């Protein structure tokens, strides 16, 4: 968790921990929470849900999508109690009145990394110049289709433009959805290098993280939860926010590739 958020988070944590204590082990206080989450958080959320359910007594139903897609679902009125998306998306939803204002807490961030087939040689991407050379030398690359609203795909697409190599790379680029197809294309050897958020790469057993993008061209996506306006389970949702901001959850997030 970022230091700048410690003070703003403390009140939320205190409230959430009180709610956790009051509902733990009680059937009457249990709620069923509907969560829409950015898919980059999938590995961490899946690991954290059982722990939260055990501590709080609440139950969570979760659906995943790109950061843009889950924000759009809330914007269009899909029933949910809490949404986790990129910080700018949550800000947009707050401005639209779709999530409760003044409760945004950044609890994790993740950078973009390159991945290759397991056991394959890793390209040198230790600097911006090395990254550019490695991409130009690659027979093919892939990253999530920006049209799907994923933060990493949008960023890599723009990065190639800024480096002045987008036109040269276009014939060698396969835009794929951030699912098995993205990783399968690299695992099978059809594509040489892939790019996505590090947390998602680490969760894939058939590919290997080649490394994060160098700091000069790295991009971090910050994630924040938003409690959906009109939710009848807002207190339970706040307990989940507090849990995600706790040291207990932070250790799991770090293990899954988040900072």
UniProtKB/TrEMBL annotation:
Q: Which GO terms describe its molecular function?
A: aconitate delta-isomerase activity; molybdate ion binding
Q: Which domain of life is it from?
A: Bacteria
Q: Which UniProt keywords apply?
A: Isomerase
What Pfam families does its record include?
A: SBP_bac_11 (PF13531)
Q: Does the keyword section mention Isomerase?
A: yes
State the Gene Ontology BP annotations. Answer: molybdate ion transport
What EC number(s) is this enzyme filed under?
5.3.3.7
* Entry protein name: Aconitate isomerase
**Source organism of this protein record:** Bradyrhizobium ivorense
Upper lineage is: Bacteria, Pseudomonadati, Pseudomonadota, Alphaproteobacteria, Hyphomicrobiales
Q: Which gene encodes it?
A: ais_1
């Amino acid at each position: 968790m970022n230091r700048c958020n410690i003070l703003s988070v403390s009140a939320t944590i205190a409230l959430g921990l009180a709610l956790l204590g009051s509902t733990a082990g009680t059937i009457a206080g249990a709620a069923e929470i509907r969560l829409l989450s950015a898919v980059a958080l999938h590995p961490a959320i899946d690991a954290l849900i059982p722990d939260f359910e055990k501590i709080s007594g609440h139950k969570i139903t979760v659906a995943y999508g790109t950061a843009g897609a889950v924000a759009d679902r809330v914007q269009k009125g899909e029933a949910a109690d809490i949404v986790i998306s990129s910080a700018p998306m949550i800000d947009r939803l707050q401005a639209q009145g779709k999530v409760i204002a003044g409760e945004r807490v950044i609890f994790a961030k993740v950078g973009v990394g390159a991945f290759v087939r397991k056991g394959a040689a890793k390209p040198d991407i230790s600097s911006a110049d090395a990254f550019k050379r490695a991409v130009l030398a690659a027979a093919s690359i892939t990253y999530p289709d920006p049209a799907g609203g994923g933060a990493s795909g949008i960023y890599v697409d723009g990065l190639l433009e800024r480096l002045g190599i987008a036109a040269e790379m276009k014939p060698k680029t396969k835009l794929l959805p951030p699912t098995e197809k993205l990783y399968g294309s690299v695992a099978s050897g059809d594509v040489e290098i892939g790019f996505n958020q590090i947390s998602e790469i680490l969760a894939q057993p058939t590919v290997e993280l080649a490394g994060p993008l160098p700091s000069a061209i790295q991009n971090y996506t910050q994630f924040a939860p938003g409690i959906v306006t009109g939710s009848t389970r807002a207190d339970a949702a706040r307990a989940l926010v507090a849990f995600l901001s706790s040291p207990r959850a932070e250790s799991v997030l770090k293990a899954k590739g988040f900072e």
